[in-house]
Amino acid sequence: MKAFILGISSALALATASWGMGITDDGCLVCHRLKGLAVVKNNKVEDCSINEALYAHSIHRNIACTECHVKIQQYPHKPGNEKVNCATQCHVIDPSTNKPFSHADVYKTWKESVHGKNYEEAPNVYPYCTYCHTNKLLVDVKKFETLEGSFERCAICHQNKEWAEDRLAHVASREDIPLTKNGFVHQFIKTRRDGWEIVELCASCHEDEKKMEKAIEIEGITNKYEKERILKAVEAYKVTMHSKMLYLDRNDTRAADCLDCHTNKGGNFHDIFHKNDPRSSINAKNIELTCGRSTECHPLAFKDHMKNFATTKWVHMHPVPDTLGQKIVKFIEEFMFWLTTSVLLFGVIIVGLDLLKNLRRKH
Amino acid sequence: MGLWEAFKRTFRLRPEQDKLLIVDGEKIMIQKFTLYQRLLHVGMFATFIWQVITGYPLKFYDTAWAKPLIGLLGGITGEMTIHRISGFTMFADFLLTVVYVLCLLIANWDLVKKDFFYYCKLVPGPTDITFIHYIKYLLGFRKVPPDWDEYIWVDKFDFWAVGWGMFAIGITGWILWLPEVFTGFLGLPPETIQIAYLMHSDEATLALGWIALAHMYMVHYGPAKFPMDWIWLSGTATEIEWIEERPRSYRRIIKAVAENEPHLLEKYPFLKERYQFVLEVEKLPEEEMIEKMHEYAHHLLEKEVEGRIA
Question: Which helix (H) or strand (E) segment is B28 a member of?
Fold first, then answer.
């Protein structure tokens, strides 16, 4: 009887707490709200605590834990089944379709992409959704004068102010602090990371030689030039004008980051395929359209006679000598290096000797 | 006067004797550069400085100073705008030089045909054996510096290096500025942009490295020139400098004055004295001749100092 009363009390307490927070947490926060809750995994202490205040302001605050952590059905849950399933349908109704919301389409694209197709085989090598999509706090729209103006306008049609505020906050979360230019809110950027942050995100794996070598092995790539191109992809991008623009001036978002070229125009930003795949944005038949995405910098790139422009390798600068053209580039690169080195060495010798001679003459 | 005569008069090479200037009736100066030549040089180095300031933060983008400098230049947009305006001006300066050289060639074709290396003094030629002498001198196999002519190896190197530089950095700059035009409308192969980028970047290192190291040493911070050789501004050198640094040219100028304007020798006795000295030293073996000329330069310097003290 005591156990029954305790059970009822606990359930009531959990429900009240959850209701109080506005979080449908399935009771998970009873334990996970505890600071210092941790497990030892692969000899490393892993923090399992959840800051409920932060969670309550995150994009997923209306989603119950088990709607994404679908394998967790009992308490205590088994280790290893805490992984989220981003393709699942949640209880939220998409107002645009009136259907339960799901990331299934995006998930399907990822599953077919270079990142997803071999994920099951090597989950430590390829990125799952959560590798890139870290949970993000919503912007409090009321704190931004510029958004407040927008918010008032939304309320003209969407009379449920709470709903409108929620949606606007969701959209506003695409950027940290909305930029105001000439009194207007700057257009929402395509991703919540700026161009350089995207480069850093992609580089976190693509610069990891061990990880990339493992991926090369899994993909069965044996061609040495192809391997070189993959291993040097980030290094070869970082010396380009695109990369330097993004790095040196974070306010200037014009230059192409990784996603600008490796995803299709009008796609869902997850459609990253091998260049031989006809669906790939860098496939020979799509490349001109991809370069032409930037109407500010290369507005002519999608024209028929721009194939030479669109197929240039200057987006990944280092020449990999697998074609005659690239062999010539490699030769010129070597020539310029030795020309510069020898001329400067000659200068150092002459100036050094002349200086010595002059000093001796003076004394 | 017809157009051809006017053109010829404008671009005709100065006779050697015209390079000698007599100041205050007692002092000899040698005019090396004309006003137009000096303006071309000012245009080149002023734009070069801007190109370095706006280009190097891109080349060394991962250094601590790159970002603040880009910020000072008005972000990437400001940096690119200045780099392009300055690059355009530099290229225009180069084109003006090319046009100027062509005009000189056309207006002096009769002379050039007669003796190419004598009239085209900036072209590497037989007198550049002096470079070997210079190396021997630096290594201690020769007692005195070479018998330098009006333009020495470093002048020629600097001049032709800018020519090469304008190809390697100027034309590639245009390609990088307008990639769609060069690879799209002009149909150049895709590798063009890659090559342009590599050359533009490496040539920037080569140009700045050489200018900062060799050129600046020769004309600014070298012990013989510190704080600087003012010839870039005045176009003229003192007689003492010319005897020591360009002895062959000095002798030729003095002889040309004596042969073509003998009345000046009568008017200015010190000119007659110089002419006699030149005739005497030319009889000596080369190294001894240079040694005597240096001694003569020191003698003139001593006289000048004494005169100042008096």
Answer: strand B27-31
How far is B255 from B248, CA to CA, in rounded Å? 11
Residue whose structure tokens are 């230049």: B73
A152-191 burial code (b ≥16 CB/10 A, e <16): eebeeebeeeeebbeebbeebbebeebeeeeeebeeeebb
Compare CB distances from B210 to A317, A337, A344 and report the shortest one's residue.
A344
Residue numbers of chain B with a pLDDT score lower than 50: none
Residue that is written with structure tokens 């070869």 in the block: A236
Angle subtended at Cα B157 by Cα B212 and Cα B123, rounded to the nearest 5 degrees? 160
Answer whether B209 sits within 8 Å of A347, measured CB to CB: yes
State which residue of chain A sits closest to B136, comparing Cα positions. Answer: A353
Cα–Cα–Cα angle for B190, B192, B198, rounded to 5 degrees: 125
Q: Long-range contact list for B33-36, CB < 8 A, 24+ apart?
A: B33/B231, B33/B232, B33/B235, B34/B235, B35/B235, B36/B100
Chain A CB contacts of B202 below 8 Å: 336-337, 339-340
Q: How far is CA A300 from CA A265, A295, B180, B191, B232, in A?
A: 15, 8, 7, 19, 45
Whether residue A340 and residue B137 make contact (CB cut-off 8 A), yes or no, is no
Residue B237 CA: distances (Å) to CA of A51, B21, B104, B159, B246: 79, 10, 23, 19, 10
Shortest CA distance to A286 belongs to which of A268, A299, A273, A270? A273
CB B124 within 8 A of CB B64: no
Q: 10 Å Cβ neighbour count for B129?
A: 11
Domain ranges of chain A: 15-81, 195-310, 325-352
User: CB distance B202–A325 less than 8 Å?
Assistant: no
User: A302 falls in which pLDDT band (50, 70, 90)?
Assistant: confident
Whole-angstrom Cα distance, residue B192 to residue A287?
18
**The pair of three-digit structure tokens given for residue B305, joined into one six-digit string:** 């100092």
Answer for the pair A334, A342: CB distance below 8 angstroms, yes or no. no
Render pLDDT for A51-108 as a digit per residue (tens, 0 to 9).
887 787 777 877 888 888 888 887 778 777 788 888 888 777 877 778 888 889 899 9
ipTM of the complex: 0.91
What tokens does A334 get?
A: 């070597």
Verdict on whether the full-model pTM lies above 0.95: no
Structure tokens at A22: 């506005």
Per-residue pLDDT band for A164 (boundaries 50, 70, 90) equals confident
